[in-house]
Amino acid sequence: MFDLSQQEELVLLQDQVRQFGAAVLRERHREFEAAGAVADEARAEYAALGLAGLELPEALDGAGLGAVARVLVLEELGAADPGAALALDALGPALYPLAELGGEAALTRYALPLLGDPEARALLVWGDSERPGRQRRLIEGGRATGTLPWVPAARADLLVVLDAQGAAVIDSGFRLTPLKGSGLRAAGAAELVLDNAPLSMHWRDPAGAARALARWRLSVAALLTGLMRTAAETSREYALQRVAFGKPIAHHQALAFLIADMHSAVDASRILVQEAAWRADAGLPFADAAATAFVEAAEAGMFVTPNALQIFGGQGFMQDLPLEKYLREARTLALMAGGIDLARDLAGAAVADSADGFALSPILAEEP
Amino acid sequence: MDFAIDAASAHRLAAFDKLGCEQMRPLGLEADRLGRPIPPDHPYFQTLIGMGFGRTRWRPDRGEQEGSADAHDKVGNSRATLLLSEQLSYWDRGVAVSAPGPGLGEGAIISMGTEDQKQRYLTPFINPDKPRWGAFAMTEPGAGSDVAAIQTRAIRDGEDWVLIGNKSFSGNSSRADFILVWATVDPSLGRAGHRAFVVEHGMPGLQDFHIERKMGLKAYESTSFRLEECRVPGANLLGGEGHYERRAGFKGAMNTFNSTRPMVAAMAVGIGRAALDEAIAFARAQDMTDDPRIRDRLERVARKLRAARLLSLKAAWLADHRRANIVEASMAKALAPTAAFEAASLGMELLGVVGARGDHLIEKLFRDVKAMDIVEGTGQIQRVIMARKLVGLPHG
Asked: Of A76, A226, A279, B144, which is least packed with CB atoms within 10 Å of its CB?
C-alpha cells in the first residue's frame, strides 16, 4: 500500500551523495563551470562513492539497484550541480539504450571498459527530429550523418544514438567542436558532427528504445527536481533575511504565496518522478509516467528558477550569486532527452488515446 | 517506496463503482435538476446503511476502531480512505457528502470529547438503526476563512450555557441528530475564547434552518441556522471545562481541518477525473482528439490531477505515520481544486456551446468543482498555512 518510506541502504546512499554534493560540488560549481570540466580531486571523490555501477546488474559486478535509487541520487547531484552530475558519470544515460536494447552482452562490450577508466565518457544523443514534420534522423542506411548543434560534453569515447526506432553505438567518425554553452557548462559543451560514421552496433527495437528514452527522461527530471529544490530553498532563505518596507520580504503575502507555490512545484515534480521510477522497478509500464514527470519537471523548472532569481531582485541577475546559473541550467536540462514537446506528445497520447476510455485509472497500479 | 494499492482496497474501490454508476451519479443529476438536496427519507440512504456506511470509527472499549465498516474509515488507514473518497467524488461529490454518518464533528468528539460525550453522541452511530447524521458548524456570515473571528456567543448561565448567533454553510445540519457548534465566550479573546458545544436536534432556540441554494453540489444540504438563546446543558461543552484550561479551543478545530485537507484534495481529484473522462469521451465522439492543441491540454490536465492525487496520498501517508503533514496537506488542498477546475473548464471548452445548454454532466461538474477551492480552507488560506511553516509568516 502506498508507502514512501525508503530502504535503509537508499537513505544512507542519499545522505552520502547529499554530503558529497554540498561539500565538493556546490563549493566549486563556478570553477567547474568556467573550466567546462570537473576537477580531478572531485572526480576522485565521486569515484569513491561507488555510484558508477549503481544500475548495472549484479552479474556484471554492479549494485543491481534500480530507477528509484538512481533518481534519489540524481536529485541530490542536481541539487548541487547538474552540469557536474553529467560530467561525473562515465556512462550516464547512455547506459539505458545499451541495457534495454543490447542487454548484458552490450554492457560487457561497451559499458564495462568505460567504468574502469576515470577519464572515460559515453555520450547519449537523441537522433530523431524533435518536432513532427521536420526530417532529421541521424541514422540512415546503416550510417550516421548529421549535426547536433549542442551536446553536454567536450569529448566522448563512445556515442550512443537513440531514436524512436532503436539505438546505435558509434565509436568513430564523429567530431566534437567545443562551444561555450548556455547551461550545464561543467559537463563540457560541443557541437557534434557525424559524417557518414559507421555503426559499431545497431538495434532496431522501438519498444526498447521507448524504455530507454523513458529512463533518460527520468534522469533529467530528477536532476531538475534537485536543481529547483536548491533554487527554491536558496530564495526562501534570502527572503527571510532581506528586509523591505519594514519586514522580511518573505512576509509580504505576494512573496509568501509565491514561495509556497515554488515549494509545491518541487514536491509535485519529485513525487511524479518517484512514482514513475517505482513503476520501472516494479516491472510496470512506465513510459507515460516518465514522460509526464519530465514535462512537469521541465515546466516547474521554468516556474521555480526564474522566480528564485526574481526574489533576489537585481542581485539575482549578477553572476556573483548562483541564481542566474540555476535558471540557465533548468532551461538547458529541459531541452534534453528529445525535449519537452516530444514528451508531451507521448503523455498526451496516453490520455487522448487511452484504450479503456479512462484517463487516470482509479488505482495507481495493481500489485505487481 | 511503494506506490501500489493493495488488492483488498482495489477490490473495495471496484465494488463502489457499481453503487457510484447505478445510484450516485443519477441521484446527483436528479438533485441538480430539481435544485434540492436528497430528502433524508430517500431509500438510497437506507441502502447505504445496509452496506455498512454511516458508522462511526469510534468504539467504546478501544477508542478508534481499525477497519470499521464506515465510509470514512473503511479500510483502516487514511490512504485507502482517501482513495475511496476520490472514487465516491468521481461519481458524485454532492451525493457523497449527503451520506449519513457522524460527519465532520466526529474527529473533534473523538479527540476532545469526554468519555461520556463519546458514549452519548457516537454510540448511535456504531450500528445505526436508520440513517443518522451528525453536523459541524463553524462558519458564520461574518467569519469564513478567519475562523478566529466567529461571533456566536456562549454565555454561562448556572449549570447551562446559552448560545446566541448565526451559523452558515453547515452540511446536513437540518437533518442532524447533533451539531457540533463552535462559539466564543469572549470575541476579544480570539481563538482562546472558542468553545465547542454539542447542540442536539430539537433543543429550544436551535431554529430558522435555511437550506441555501448553491451553484452546484445540490445533492446535500448546506444550511444556515440561528441560535436564539439556545440553552445547552453544561455536559454538552465538548471536552468539559478542563479541556479549554489545558489548551486553546482553536487548536482543536484546526486539528480537525488538518486531518481532512488531503481528503478534500482527493475529492477534488475525483471530480476532476470525472470531468476529464467525460471530456475525452466527448472529444472522441466528435473526432477532436487528433488536434495537438486539444491533446496538449488534455495532457496538462491529466498531469496536474496525477500530481495532486500523489500529493494527497503523500499527505495521508505522513499522517498515517504520525509525521508532520501541515505543509503537505495544505499543498494537496491548494493544488487539487485548481487542477480539477481546469479539467472541468477544459471539458466545457471542448463541449463548446453544447456546454451552454446547461444539461451536460460536464456543465454540472463545472458548477460543482469550484466549491472545492473554498471548503476546508480556501486556496489562499492553504498558502497562508504553508507560508507560516516555510517562512514563519506572522499570524494576522
From this structure: B144
DSSP-derived letter for residue A142 is: T
Q: Does A1 touch chain B (CB under 8 A)?
A: yes
DSSP structure string for B202-265: T-TTEEEEEEPP-SS-TTS-EEEEEEEEEEEEGGGBTTHHHHHHHS-HHHHHHHHHHHHHHHHH
Task: Tell me whether residue A279 is in a domain.
Answer: yes
For chain B, say whether A256 makes contact (Cβ under 8 Å).
yes
Concatenate the DSSP letters of all residues of B248-283 into one string.
Answer: -HHHHHHHHHHHHHHHHHHHHHHHHHHHHHHHHHHH
Instruction: Determine the structural domain holding residue A319 and report its residue range.
Output: 207-352
The most distant pair of C-alpha atoms in chain A lies apart, rounded to whole Å, by 69
With contacts defined as CB-CB under 8 Å, which chain A residues touch B331? 260, 263-264, 267
d(CA B133, CA B215): 23
Count A/B contacts: CB-CB distance under 8 Å: 185
Contact B82, B266 (CB under 8 A): yes
Q: Which value does ipTM take for this structure?
A: 0.93
We report the CATH number of the domain holding residue A321 as 1.20.140.10
Contact by Cβ (8 Å): B28, B214: no
Residue A365 and residue B3: Cβ atoms within 8 Å?
yes
pTM: 0.93
Residues B54-105 pLDDT 10s: 999 899 876 555 444 443 433 347 888 899 999 999 999 999 999 999 998 8
User: Between chains, do A272 and B306 touch, taking CB under 8 Å as contact?
Assistant: yes
What domains can you pick out in chain B, each with its CATH number?
Answer: 7-101 (1.10.540), 134-247 (2.40.110.10), 250-391 (1.20.140.10)
CA distance A233 to chain B (A): 10
Spatial contact of B331 and A323, defined as CB atoms under 8 Å apart: no
Q: What's the gap in Å between the CA of B286 and the closest CA on chain A?
A: 13
Interface contact B321, partner A, CB < 8 A:
yes
Please list the active-site residues of B: 376
B327 touches chain A (CB under 8 A): yes
Q: b or e along B25-63 (b: 16 or more beta carbons within 10 Å of the residue's beta carbon)?
A: bebbbebbeeeebbebeeebbeebbeeebbbbbbeeeee
Quick one: A233 exposed, middle or buried, by C-beta within 10 A (0-12, 13-18, 19+)? Answer: middle
The Cα–Cα gap between B230 and B224 comes to 15
Sort out which chain A residues have CB atoms less than 8 A from B7's CB and list them: 366-367
The answer, for B83 touching chain A at a CB cutoff of 8 Å, is yes
Is the confidence at residue B249, as pLDDT, over 50? no
Q: What is the pLDDT of residue B6?
A: 82
**Contact residues, A window 283-342, toward B, CB-based 8 Å cutoff:** 292, 295-296
Beta bridge partners of B211: B223
In angstroms, the CA A214 to CA A208 distance is 10
